[in-house]
TrEMBL record, chains A, B:
Pathway named in the protein's UniProt entry: Lipid metabolism; peroxisomal fatty acid beta-oxidation
Lineage, broadest ranks: Eukaryota, Metazoa, Ecdysozoa, Arthropoda, Hexapoda
UniProt keyword list: FAD, Fatty acid metabolism, Flavoprotein, Lipid metabolism, Oxidoreductase, Peroxisome
Domain of life: Eukaryota
Subcellular location: Peroxisome
SUPFAM superfamilies with a match to the protein in the record: Acyl-CoA dehydrogenase C-terminal domain-like (SSF47203), Acyl-CoA dehydrogenase NM domain-like (SSF56645)
Native species: Arctia plantaginis (Wood tiger moth)
Descriptive protein name: Acyl-coenzyme A oxidase
Annotated Gene Ontology cellular component terms: peroxisome
Length: 665, 665
């Protein structure tokens, strides 16, 4: 109906309005021009293979067909990565984006059944295997002689690892372990790739030897015959069924009926069972924090990719979509001109910036702490752990809300899978639960905060991220620094109130655990306040640092976004600020006006800001969000791909509808 | 592994703890014992036909197969309803629950392609057809000689009806209308059943006659041949593609290439085109409010069903699930014992009560207004309209949040489709967009509130639901009535601030429309505050009224739930209360303690409260939520239904995985 190479005129106008250099911002977000270049090169190399191209879009396939397509794509993708590794003489870590994040999820929209082989099976072998075990197993795993996964969670137990029921009992007579699932709830449940893909598995089980339980340890178990792929005797294995999203990941269940494995199949870097069954303890168990920290930082970065995707789609769509007629003689405005729409989108853009910079901040901290650890200094480990817990909880929850807000901002068309927003939500909301359920994580941070508070009360010095607990805050002032200091007072006051409440309840006769539980709604909120403060601070400070090296045009916009984010959260948490700071009604009205003015100032740069996320059309995978803004043409083109549209009359007419109409059904 | 008739022991204990008579509460929520009995009878009659039973659960089917299954089920279901109508000599309205709500969505989980025939096609014929048109068309539609749908929304236009582009031009020479789609964006898009199911359609189009446009009018258009079901010439028709949910509804697109229909096919009850093309106007256009009001009240009631489903599932699961070990020597507690979990569930239960009673309140008001209307009195129409707009927005948004909160409260297992929580979310979140996008609706209410405020300022008397705008509120007091009065002050203050902001911006030179737009974030919030106040008030007052006739045991629990709901919202909206009332820090701490005490008091009745929603297992359709609480057995049983589990080795192993492992792919 119109020239197919043309960019939508409204979008073109938006791009002309942009006041800053888009590539410059892309570079800042990537961490420098070299990083942008390398990312783009990888995307180009991977996407030109065309693995992501689907004959029939996967949303039209059955659950089983989705899995089969995922296996095909995952094999082709990993084959490609292997070739590139050889060509470029580099390791797997260089291709992280391909395994997860925006590029990976663009190719394997329903998730990959091979991911756990690379992100859990091999790393666990490396982290927990003895030198001999590593020599033997890592080679086989890298060569793909075997494909593995990692099984910890059980049907009846997730977050609480000590409660796992699978047993591994050492038999000194045969020098074997006997793996067993004593109950239905002890069945392993959830591991990706477990159902029909992996033939080996690292199983976490309660270790028994000489009648004693030594807690959870890792064991390598063969699941399937290497030639025929048939499950081995005593192995009860299958798929756990359809899910909200990620139906290509092949999550499985696994039960054992007295399955015997050699003694050498326990991973023994940290703990050992000697031939006679003697248990030799690990020198330190804190060393596994590293992997967990790494995974959590990766999750935060993934949340940034997903939010960037969602807000790019919604913003471009809002520039193209026109609706209603507030002024009788003027054309319908772009919906991006409505302040309520800007309210939904701008904070989403700012959140991507805020979390990107916070993730880098905590990643630096992690690297410092790791260096200290290697020098034997464990002092900052609890602080880092506490921070990573609440950050994982808050970033995943905010990301889920952000993606849904963007989806709903696209009206009915956001409900179409062709928008790619529902699938993105499926990926993001899953992160609220996996790697530590969010409420549980917030309460873990709260435990640390309560201790830190008591330390501060006792006059002890505090680690940097909780040093504010001991500071006296100045009276409210309506500046960025003033707001951040206000949030310090909020977090400190909330923790202080929690401590007082727990103590009061203990005095009234409750056990500490019950007093804690009765206060836990407030504790989770205090933990969230601590996290908000951290994000606001690190976003603010990192931006101040980075804008020193950028052009004045970009600096202005980056600082406007920080302002917007901080003022947005001040308005969102007005109740806290009113309770704990000296903010006045006049200040609030000033903040509200400041916020509305910022939306207006940022409005002309909205499309430029999402263009700077630099997400290729293949990665966005959205009829609403493509660079050319040809929303309606693309929606129609996608609709025509529905297999239902291949025939003018569906067979159900003859089979059901016509007999029904004729009273003959 | 255990006796399959047994109820989970924890659930059994919960039921023994319940302090009130469950059936008594069921009766209160249904509106009396007779209503409960009738509902149960209908459920029994419909479910015993087994139409809901699926050989392979629909989540494993392809998009196309889901549609075919939906056609089959819908035909069987409507055949059954027809039989029952004849047997019981009653109309369609008696089977509303079967068309929508919890029973309907239990049978047709992916939605029904025939629903619009009954809820839009026939009612529009009745409401907009002339007597002759009704006589001809309604008979054909009831007899199922034809199957219809209703096409209003276009690819480029949703909420803004004046912007629709489809044209219907009268040709006096042939006495026909010519329907045409002048652009891609003018294609009809979204109507349920349009794609492959209906053969007739009511099309809303811009009416042109004698060179003049007369706005949007309804036309009956034949889409497909009655015998062969082939699309007629000039009719471009198909399916719009896969969606987040409701993939059985067969949403379609429809374009016209100069399609001619007889003059008699314009629905002419309200407006007419004479043979020579003369347009004869309708006496009043406000009469269509009735249908819209009815639809919105139905939406609120549906939201109650979905929330009741979600919280029943999550509460029963929380009674069965045990996790963690706060006290070293005690067993793992039920997760329902954690205050954070009670915090997520109890307010969800209270919300079902609150919205159920608010829906009845507005339904009564609607019936009164309709009676007044028929007596020619239109005074309360704007008030009713304003209330229905914000209520639709707030109840759908709250319901979506509630269902997701319940899903996340079930941890990883809530992500399984077998929990039925993801599908429920898909149904609920759709309602945030259809029948009026939520932000647009909130701003419609705001327009009314601003006018009412100006009326009050001018000393005019106000209709009941906005009378609070003229009241002076007493100082804060920490009682239920005190909180509700505090919310009156909040809503009034927010509206007042909006009016002041708009005026200030006008004085600074902005046009009214621009001043409105710049204030619209605040206006939407003011509108939400007005709605919260209404829900709190009507829930509080209706409960006070109803508890007069219930047992003391039930009264206590119902009043605790009202307390919980009101205090919950006071804590949620603490910023507003601090800004606009004289609430003190002491009061806040008192409210927090009150809230925590209420959770503890309600805890023993949690399972009893969800049992009282009286949702049969067939309706819950959830492995996590069944009455017997056999969560893990059911999860495993559901998993085994996955077609992937029918074979020990999937064909993709031979086709991709093995060649990949051997380097031969």
């Amino acid at each position: 109906m119109s020239d197919s190479t043309k960019v939508n005129a409204d979008l073109q106008r938006e791009r002309q309005k942009c006041t800053f250099n888009i590539t410059e911002l892309t570079n800042v977000l990537d961490g420098g021009p070299a990083m942008t270049e390398e990312r783009r090169r990888q995307e180009e190399v991977v996407l030109k293979e065309g693995i992501h191209v689907e004959e029939v879009p996967s949303e039209y396939l059955s659950h089983k067909e989705k899995y089969e397509l995922a296996v095909k794509k995952a094999c082709l993708l990993f084959k490609l990565i292997r070739r590139l590794q050889e060509e470029e003489n580099t390791g797997m870590e260089n291709f992280r984006a391909v395994l997860g994040g925006s590029l990976g999820s663009a190719i394997l929209q329903d998730g990959s059944p091979l991911t756990l082989h690379y992100v859990m099976f091999i790393p666990t072998l490396m982290g927990q295997g003895s030198v001999e075990q590593q020599a033997y197993w890592i080679g086989r795993a890298f060569n793909l002689d075997i494909i593995g996964t990692y099984a910890q969670t059980e049907l009846g137990h997730g977050t609480f690892i000590r409660g796992l029921e699978t047993t591994s009992t050492y038999d000194p007579k045969t020098k074997e372990f006997v793996l067993h699932s004593p109950t239905l709830t002890s069945y392993k449940w959830w591991p990706g790739g477990l159902a029909h893909t992996a033939n080996y598995c690292i199983v976490m089980a309660q270790l028994y030897s000489n009648g004693q339980c030594h807690g959870i340890h890792p064991f390598i178990v063969q699941l399937r015959d290497e030639e025929t792929h048939m499950p081995l005797p005593g192995i009860k294995i299958g798929e756990i069924g359809a899910k909200l999203g990620m139906n290509g990941t092949n999550n499985g269940f696994l039960g054992f009926e007295q399955v015997r494995i050699p003694r050498a199949h326990m991973l023994m870097k940290n703990c050992q069972i000697l031939e006679d069954g003697t248990y030799v303890k690990s020198p330190s168990s804190k060393l596994t924090y590293g992997t967990m920290m790494f995974v959590r930082v990766v999750i935060i970065k993934d949340m940034c990719s997903y939010m960037a995707k969602a807000v790019t789609i919604a913003t471009r769509y809002s520039a193209v979509r026109r609706q209603s007629q507030p002024k009788p003689d003027e054309p319908e405005p772009q919906i991006l001109d409505y302040l309520t729409q800007q309210h939904k989108l701008m904070v989403s853009i700012a959140t991507v910036h805020a979390f990107t910079l916070s993730a880098e901040w905590i990643w630096d901290m992690y690297n410092n702490v790791t260096a200290e650890l290697e020098a034997g200094d464990m002092e900052r480990l609890p602080e880092l752990h506490a921070l990573s817990c609440c950050l994982k909880a808050v970033t995943t929850a905010d990301a889920a809300e952000c993606v849904e807000r963007c989806r709903l901002a696209c009206g009915g068309h956001g409900y179409m899978l062709a928008s790619n927003l529902p699938v993105t939500y499926g990926l993001v909301t899953a992160a609220c639960t996996y790697e530590g359920e969010n409420t549980v994580l917030l309460l873990q941070t709260a435990r640390y905060l309560v201790k830190a508070w008591q330390q501060a009360a006792g006059g002890d010095s505090l680690p940097p991220t909780v040093a504010y607990l001991a500071r006296r805050s100045p009276p409210w002032d309506c500046s960025l620094e003033g707001i951040v200091r206000g949030f310090e007072l909020v977090a400190a006051s909330k923790i202080s109130l929690c401590v007082a409440n727990i103590e009061k309840r203990q005095k009234s006769g409750l056990a500490y655990e019950d007093a804690w539980n009765m206060t836990s709604v407030q504790l989770a909120q205090a933990s969230e306040a601590h996290c908000r403060l951290f994000v606001l601070t690190s976003y603010f400070e990192e931006t101040e640092r980075r804008v020193k090296n950028v052009s004045p045009q970009l600096r202005e916009v980056m600082l406007q976004l920080v302002d917007l984010y901080v003022v947005y959260w001040a308005l969102e948490r007005m109740g806290d600020l009113l309770r704990f700071t000296s903010i006045s009604e006049r200040d609030i009205e000033k903040l509200q006006q400041w916020y509305e003015d910022l939306l207006t100032k940022l409005r002309p740069n909205a499309v430029g800001l999402v263009d700077a996320f630099d997400l290729r059309d293949e990665i966005l995978h959205s009829a609403l969000g493509a660079y050319d803004g040809r929303v309606y043409e693309r929606l129609m083109a996608e609709a025509l791909k529905s297999p239902l549209n291949a025939e003018p009359v569906n067979r159900s007419f003859h089979k059901y509808l016509k007999p029904f109409m004729q009273g003959k059904l």
